[in-house]
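Milestone M4 deliverable, item 7.
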Amino acid sequence: MENISRLNSIISQIKKLDYEARLYLMERLARQLRSSKTKEKSQKPPKLSDLNSLGSEIWSGLDLDKYVQQQRQWE
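Output delivered:
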């Protein structure tokens, strides 16, 4: 929600610029987007091992044996 209000503020400021300034801004943004896209492509794809311990905070403080026993009761 905060980002939307910030973007609206930026857009209202852009509207105050003359045509040449807005065109320059568009060109600069396009260059920046292309540059970031190139960097994303050059990154290596993630490895399965990168997911190790992802979401571990969900299971912290939980008695796993008790949880498994409760899940088996559903069968």
